[in-house]
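Researcher: Re-running this chain for the archive, since the previous output was lost when a drive failed. Same request as before.
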Amino acid sequence: MNSLNRAQLIGNMTRDPELKHTSNGQSVLTCSVATNRSWKDANGTKHDDVEYHNVVCWGKLADIMAQYTRKGTKMYFSGRMQTRNWDDQNGVKHYRTEVVADEAIILTPKGMVEGTPAHFEAPDQPGQPDHEADDLPF
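Model: Regenerated structure tokens:
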């Protein structure tokens, strides 16, 4: 039986996206998205939670996102979950879980974000290997 690794987020970008390029020139964009959840406890008291998610876009999707989004843009992202790890210069291991997006939709009302495209999908690239942590410029 196959597995399923799929994530979907709707939230606001918490900072301007950051576009970088790998050593071979491929675009990679990182951004952070906040999602909110509200609920009432047994006493009727309302509670709010915020979760922050790291999102990564590659290639043409990264280039388009860099052009048309900014801090505060309401976004839908769909992709797969990935956890990377690395050792810093002190030998301490760090972990980062992120959504590697293959689809993005701008949900901010028209006129609030410059540009016209609203729905982006990463082109299918069969046979392309997953990106290793060493390929990432951050």
